[in-house]
Specification:
InterPro entries: DUF389 (IPR005240). The chain is built from 13 helices and four strands.
Length: 315
């Protein structure tokens, strides 16, 4: 279940209540007259089945509430109510399969901003990957995969492509276009410092001996397959209630590790491995976005096909 709050101008409140009353997936409808201060108006609250959220939000946005008032959604972990049970049963489909499109756009938009936090995480992840390469540590490489925040902008690119949202495409493009070069430049400085000081030993840059991390730069068809499977799983997780699956996505692709390996290989003068690592990075980025966009298109088409047949009225 989701908890919906809508700030309504007084002249729109009745229509908003009609929208919520008419939908079988609504429970616990409450109206607070004059409760909203800024913007002034009424506050309408309801618990709604997740599979009904997209349609209800669209209807409320059709009343202009996203401009004249406000609409917020909040996940409910527990709802002990017969009315809530009936709403979930009446709403067609399964909650875990439902896509709340406005929620998806908001989430990917927020996670694709090239802010200080995003750049810091990406840089730290790239540095971790470089350490993993220098120490021949697959465990450290996995740690870099988990820390890397790049899936947010990649998901935003897929959403932007499918929904034709230029703002998401630009924002995600800036995040990736600025983030990876910055992280690699900082990692380059760190790798040069390590080589100058010899802190990791004389053999750290002898990459031909680091067989434990060869998978990072070995680009090929398997790399594309893994990237596409990860992109598909990641988009399924973001569009459903199974967000915990994102952790598995993070540790299945070698985007950040490939960037870190490319830098270390360049410092070591291993240009063939450097170019292969760059190719690995590009294959992973493109594969993730392509698969995520395909999954999103399929889910969108499937949801559209169900809208025409599902009942909206309780009666």
């Amino acid at each position: 279940m989701l908890h919906l709050r809508a700030v309504c101008p007084p002249d729109v409140t009745a229509r908003a209540l009609d929208v919520l009353r008419a939908h079988a997936g609504t429970a616990h409808l409450i109206a607070h007259r004059g409760a909203a201060v800024e913007p002034a108006g009424d506050l309408v609250e309801a618990d709604i089945a997740r599979e009904a959220a997209d349609e209800i939000v669209d209807a409320l946005c059709g009343l202009g509430l996203d401009h004249t008032g406000g609409i917020t959604l909040e996940a409910l972990d527990t709802a002990l109510s017969d009315a809530a049970d009936r709403a979930e049963e009446a709403a067609p489909g399964e909650g875990a399969d439902a896509v709340v499109w406005e929620e998806l756009v908001a989430r990917t938009g927020e996670e694709s901003r090239a802010n200080v936090t995003f750049l810091a995480f990406l840089t730290i992840a790239c540095l971790l990957a470089a350490v993993g390469v220098l120490t021949n540590s697959a465990v450290t490489i996995v740690g870099a995969m988990v820390v890397g925040p790049e899936f947010g902008p990649l998901a935003a690119l897929a959403v932007g492509l499918v929904l034709r949202r230029g703002d998401l495409l630009r924002r995600a493009g800036v995040a990736l276009g600025v983030g990876f070069p910055l992280a690699m430049v900082v990692t380059l400085g760190g790798a040069l410092l390590v080589r100058a000081t010899g802190v990791f030993g004389e053999k750290a840059f002898q990459l031909e001996q680091n067989h434990e991390v060869d998978f990072v730069f070995s680009v090929g068809v398997p790399s594309l397959v893994v990237a596409m499977l990860a992109g598909a799983a990641g988009m399924l997780a973001m569009t459903s209630a199974k967000s915990a699956a994102l952790v598995g996505v993070f540790i299945s692709v070698t985007t950040v590790p490939a960037a870190g390996y490319a830098v270390v290989a360049a410092v070591a003068g291993e240009w063939s491995r450097c170019l292969q690592s760059v190719g690995q990075l590009l294959v992973n980025l493109l594969g993730i976005v392509a698969a995520a966009a395909i999954v999103l298109t399929l889910r969108r088409n499937g949801q559209r096909s169900r809208v025409g047949t599902r009942p909206l009225s309780r009666g």
